[in-house]
Amino acid sequence: MKTDDLIAMLASGPDVAAAPPPGARWRTAATLGAGLLASVALMAAWLGVRPNLAQLALRPDFWIKLAFVASVCLAAWHASRRLGMPGANTGSLLRWLALPLLLMWLLGAAAIATAAPELRAELFWGTTWRSCPLLIALLSLPVLAAMLRAMRQLAPTRLRLAGAAAGFAAGGAAALVYCLHCPEMAASFIGFWYVLGMLVPAAIGALLGPKVLAW
């Protein structure tokens, strides 16, 4: 049997499973933890935590917002991790990313449809639409740098897609940090302006992926 045939047989065998290199999980956790702490420190020093955060935490829509952002962040992180392992199954990644987005969009659409006409614009625009996406994008930069550094320790092959997933995960993490400052609660606002802020680092990651993640 030729060497190339043996390699092909082993690679296509049923017992072969994609796995990160030894020690990658600990290095990744340390790298991402440092990026997240930097984002939290930037938010606290620049924007500050809302003084009425304890009162906001008593509202169900606050926890809906947190659950949405956390779900998007975890789904994007899972996608970036799978894209960093050659041969890993990536067929269901889009569904995991789309599910929290669709649920929040449906919730926001229902809220606008049932609201009084004079309140619908406020539910969508809120009071911080001009700054919200930009602030999320800026807070995501330390996490994005950490995500890309962590992915360099893996072996992504679809570099642009892997970079976009890393950027979207960084945007989700930054949005989670931004929740400690943001006063907005409407599902329609969160589903559009928060997601817009997450898409900025996703676009940056897609641009940087072929250059930063090449191996």
Would you mind describing this structure in some detail?
This protein has helices spanning 3-11, 24-46, 53-56, 60-83, 93-114, 117-125, 132-152, 159-178, 187-212. The protein has 215 residues and is an all-alpha fold. α7 (132-152) runs parallel beside α9 (187-212). The chain is built from nine helices and no strands. It has one domain (24-212). It comes from Janthinobacterium psychrotolerans. Keywords: Membrane, Transmembrane, Transmembrane helix.
Could you name the key traits of this structure?
mainly alpha, Anti-sigma F factor, NrsF, membrane, transmembrane, transmembrane helix, 215 residues
List the helices and strands and how they pair.
Layout: H1 3-11, H2 24-46, H3 53-56, H4 60-83, H5 93-114, H6 117-125, H7 132-152, H8 159-178, H9 187-212
Helix pairs in contact: 2-7, 2-8, 4-5, 4-8, 5-6, 5-9, 7-8, 7-9, 8-9
Largest sheet: none
Total number of helices: 9
- Element-level helix/strand string: HHHHHHHHH
Structural class by SSE content: mainly alpha
Task: Tell me what portion of residues adopts beta-strand conformation.
Answer: under 5%
Which whole number gives the mean pLDDT? 87
Number of strands: 0
Overall shape: globular
How many distinct domains? 1
Keywords: Membrane, Transmembrane, Transmembrane helix
Protein name: Anti-sigma F factor
InterPro entries: NrsF
Pfam families: NrsF
